[in-house]
C-alpha cells in the first residue's frame, strides 16, 4: 500500500473488517450486485457460446463495472427543476457518468470486430441488468393493506426501455389520477430532454419513487 495512503488511513483511524470465508452473504447489498452481474454474464457468455480474448474480456468487465456503479443511490440536487442522482461512480470520481459511445451496436456485432463486440455485449448486459435491478427498488407485495399514493411533487425514476446505457431518467409527478376507490394508478410526469421539459402519462408500475414530496 502507498505510504501516503497508509498514513491517511491510520490518521483517520480506519479499520478493515473482513467477512469470514464461505460467508459471502454477509456482504449485503454489494454482494447482491456481484451475484446479479455473475448471473447475467453467465447467461450472456455461456448460453450464447461467445469466446472472448483476454483484452476484450477486461474491456467488457470495465463496461460492466461502469454500468453497476452508475446506479442511482439518492437525490442530491437542491434544484427541483433539474435534479440529479448520486451514484457510486460519482463518489469515486466526483464526475457525472460518462455516456456510451455514439452509434448502434446490435447483437450481430457480437461476432464482429473486437471494439464493436464489447459495445454490443455492454448494451446486452445493460438491458438485462436494468431489468433485474429496477424491480429491486420497488417493493412488490399483496395489496391487502392501504399504502401511500404517489403525489404531486414526488421525484420518480422512469422505466424507459429506450434510455441509453448508464442513463437513469428522472421526473417529477405533476398530476395524479385517482380511481373511484381513491387509489392512484396513473400519473402525469414531467422530465427534461435536451434541456426542454417533456410531459408524459405513465402507469405507476412504470415509475419508481425516489424522493417523496414531504
Query: Main beta sheet: strand number and arrangement?
Result: 5 strands, antiparallel
Computed CA radius of gyration, to the nearest angstrom? 21 Å
| Major β-sheet strand ordering | 6-5-4-3-7
Regions with little confidence, pLDDT below 50 for 5+ residues: none
Helix % is 25-40%
Structural class of the helices, strands and pairings?
alpha+beta
How far apart the termini lie comes to: 45 Å
Beta-strand segment tally: 7
Globally, the shape reads globular
The H/E string reads HHHEEHHEEEEE
Average of per-residue pLDDT values: 77
Please report which band the strand proportion falls in: under 5%, 5-15%, 15-25%, 25-35%, 35-45% or over 45%: 15-25%
How would you characterize this protein structure?
With 214 residues, this protein is α+β, with helices and mostly antiparallel strands. The chain has helices at 3-11, 29-45, 54-69, 88-93, 114-137; strands at residues 74-75, 85-86, 155-158, 170-178, 184-193, 196-203, 207-211. The chain has 2 domains: 29-137, no CATH class; 155-211. The protein is built from 5 helices and 7 strands. The strands form 2 sheets. Strands 6-5-4-3-7 form a 5-stranded antiparallel β-sheet, with no helix packed on it. A two-stranded antiparallel ribbon has the order 1-2. Strand 4 and strand 5 form a beta hairpin. Helix 2 (29-45) crosses helix 5 and helix 3 (54-69) runs parallel beside helix 5. It is globular. The N and C termini lie far apart (45 Å).
Amino acid at each position: 500500500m502507498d505510504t501516503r495512503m497508509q498514513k491517511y488511513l491510520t490518521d483517520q483511524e480506519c479499520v478493515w473488517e473482513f467477512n469470514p470465508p464461505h460467508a459471502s452473504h454477509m456482504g449485503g447489498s454489494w454482494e447482491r450486485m456481484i451475484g446479479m452481474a455473475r448471473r447475467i454474464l453467465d447467461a450472456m457468455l455461456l448460453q450464447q457460446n461467445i469466446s472472448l480474448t483476454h483484452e476484450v474480456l477486461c474491456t467488457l468487465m470495465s463496461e460492466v463495472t461502469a454500468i453497476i456503479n452508475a446506479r442511482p443511490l439518492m437525490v442530491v440536487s437542491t434544484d427541483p427543476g433539474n435534479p440529479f442522482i448520486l451514484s457510486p461512480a460519482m463518489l469515486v470520481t466526483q464526475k457525472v457518468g460518462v455516456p456510451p459511445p455514439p452509434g448502434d451496436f446490435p447483437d450481430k456485432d457480437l461476432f464482429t470486430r473486437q471494439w464493436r463486440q464489447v459495445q454490443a455485449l455492454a448494451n446486452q448486459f445493460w438491458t438485462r441488468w436494468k431489468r433485474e435491478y429496477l424491480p429491486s427498488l420497488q417493493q412488490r407485495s399483496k395489496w391487502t393493506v392501504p399504502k401511500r399514493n404517489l403525489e404531486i411533487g414526488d421525484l420518480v425514476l422512469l422505466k424507459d426501455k429506450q434510455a441509453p446505457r448508464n442513463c437513469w431518467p428522472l421526473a417529477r409527478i405533476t398530476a395524479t389520477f385517482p380511481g373511484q376507490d381513491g387509489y392512484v394508478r396513473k400519473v402525469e410526469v414531467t422530465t427534461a430532454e435536451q434541456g426542454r421539459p417533456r410531459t408524459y402519462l405513465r402507469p405507476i408500475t412504470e415509475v419508481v419513487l425516489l424522493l417523496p414530496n414531504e
